[in-house]
């Protein structure tokens, strides 16, 4: 309801039924995906509670996004050029994480890249960190009229 989808459904369909059906579908989507055993796709970012892909696989997806913990972090965390491994996110959920965390996670899990979204990038994509082993992809033109 926060980002306007609920209101858009009300305008287009006259009631909240379509919104409820969509949200029910969203609740079944995978938390993450692996492409060719080398690319992790996730909405937000990494979590200090997750070191391996098996730990992501073990998360119970059939629930609302909690306010803290690994599930929350994978949805809300963001990459940032920071000198500490982790910092509390100014969003109020998730963490900021740096290149060292990304390098270590990719090494442990034999990944080449983490692909994520969750942040507006005007160019459509942005590689982070010197190793360019994390990319933010944004495909919503005119998001919030920007």
Automatic annotation (TrEMBL):
The keyword Metal-binding applies. Residues 1-146 form the Serine/threonine specific protein phosphatases domain. It comes from the Eukaryota. GO terms for molecular function: metal ion binding; protein serine/threonine phosphatase activity. Keywords: Hydrolase, Manganese, Metal-binding. It holds the Pfam family Metallophos. The keyword Hydrolase applies. The lineage of its organism: Eukaryota, Sar, Stramenopiles, Ochrophyta, Bacillariophyta. InterPro entries: Calcineurin-like_PHP (IPR004843), Metallo-depent_PP-like (IPR029052), PPA2-like (IPR047129), Ser/Thr-sp_prot-phosphatase (IPR006186). This is protein-serine/threonine phosphatase. It comes from Helicotheca tamesis. Its EC number is 3.1.3.16.
